[in-house]
Amino acid sequence: MATIYLPGNALPESAVPGPGTHHFDHKLTASLAGPSVEVPAATNSTSPTLNSKPSITIPLPPSNHQQQPTVDAIVLCRVTRIQSRQANVSILVVGDAVCRGEWAGVVRYVELWGKENVEMTWAKEFTLISMAYSVQDIRATEKDKVKVGESFRPGDIVRAQVISLGDQSNYYLSTASNHLGVVMAASEAGNAMYPVSWKQFKDPITGDLERRKVAKPF
Asked: What is the C-alpha separation between 211 and 115, in angstroms, rounded?
């Protein structure tokens, strides 16, 4: 009979991590609830010892329902890319439901256009209003000092709110609230950090401080 694991339970150390598992405190740990599945070690003719250990996974339970982000939903996402005016993310969790696929989203920082630069037809005016609404989706304070690269880094886990279904490619997200922002981050040295203020995380090993838009703990 297969062993049922809960998130945080230790897994056998004889295997390498697969989907549904992660390393925590130097231990292989379950990320999801469910039975574990051991996948044989991958070998090939050119390198038969490519991976001498089997991998262990905890698959998502079968479901015919695909959880999709909706407006006002709180989501957890992973930062995949940083640009000068936006952070691209992959939405992993919607509410309390883990997504079976990954949905693309963006947290935007857009400069406000002055009315003198816009031809005030109805369509142009609507565009201006929309842009004014999303001038700063990163944080609600010190808006003029926001820099995307100092708010997020690739790999960060971010709690955000869906503010728009966006375009055909991305959902539009906001972290402009105290309880929204980065909840998990690794330092440049690769160590898990902890928050020390609303705009800084600290590496417990090196002592270095790194800037982020930090989510207030519940």
From this structure: 34
Contact 77, 162 (CB under 8 A): no
Distance CA 177, CA 160 (A): 9
Cα distance from N-terminal residue to C-terminal residue, the chain: 38
Where in 86-185 does DSSP place strands (E)? 86-94, 97-108, 157-164, 171-174, 181-184
Q: Are 39 and 54 in contact (CB under 8 A)?
A: yes
* CA dist., res. 216 & res. 182, Å (int): 9
Each of the 218 residues of the chain gets a pLDDT tens digit; together they read 567 888 888 888 777 777 888 877 778 888 888 887 877 765 444 444 445 677 788 877 665 556 788 888 999 999 999 888 888 999 988 888 888 777 898 888 755 444 333 333 333 333 333 333 434 455 555 555 677 888 889 999 999 999 888 777 888 898 888 889 999 999 999 899 999 998 899 999 999 999 998 998 76
Two structure tokens written together for 128? 């201006």
CB 166 within 8 A of CB 172: yes
3-state percent breakdown (helix, strand, coil) of the chain, nearest 5: 10, 40, 55
Tokens 């940083």, residue located:
82
Residue 212 CB neighbour total at 10 angstroms: 23
pTM higher than the cut 0.70? no
